[in-house]
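User: My instructor asked us to take a sequence, write out its structure as tokens, and then describe one feature of it. I'm not sure where to start. Here is the sequence I was given:
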Amino acid sequence: MIGVDTVFSRHLAPEALPGAVRTAVGKPLRRASPLTQLALIGALACLPPDRRDLPTALLWQSTSGARSETLILLDEICRGSAEPMPYDFLATQPAIAAAQILPFLPGLQTAIYLPLEQAQQANWSLLFHLAADWLNRGRYAQVLCAQFDYADTAADMHCLSLSAAALENRAARLHLSDTPSGEIQPDTPDFPARLAKWLARTDGETLSLHAPFAMKQAVEFTRL
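Assistant: Let's start with the prediction itself. The structure tokens for your sequence are:
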């Protein structure tokens, strides 16, 4: 059985992001892009200390990507206002987030980044299908699925952790179904926040995630 262990969503003002990192790890994360900082906060919020050494995969998506870091680098190159530094270039590569959070999440073995094209678009269904396959085959002990976005006015993180272990106090059970049932929710960036609200209710035993990309199987969540 694949269980949803933790559901986490948080909205921050951009200027509050460094303080949130210090709260999470006790120190600043030097030369880390906002996306890396969001990934670190989300990962540590979803995984307790006793599970951070377990084989872990991170599947994350973003609409914003490293847009602000790329614009800064382009300005330095095109205007000649400053010589680009190596860490300025690295900040434009979302994949670098995995290397920078590894000291705090030593069990991390795989990280896959999926860019999104539109602001209200998400592909949680793809992340959940891939996570379910990996967990069913025993490839990892747990999988983090997340969406991180950063802009001048807001920093948003939505994540949840999945595992096949028999843990106590699980939020829900995840399974794939050919015939979706129960309440149906759209596949948008804030899906984990809406999942958390559904779990806080007492009505409805099943919630289904609508897959916009014609997945053959629906992703369903069932109360435990």
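For the description part of your assignment, you could build on this observation: The chain has seven helices and nine strands. Try explaining in your own words what that tells you about the chain.
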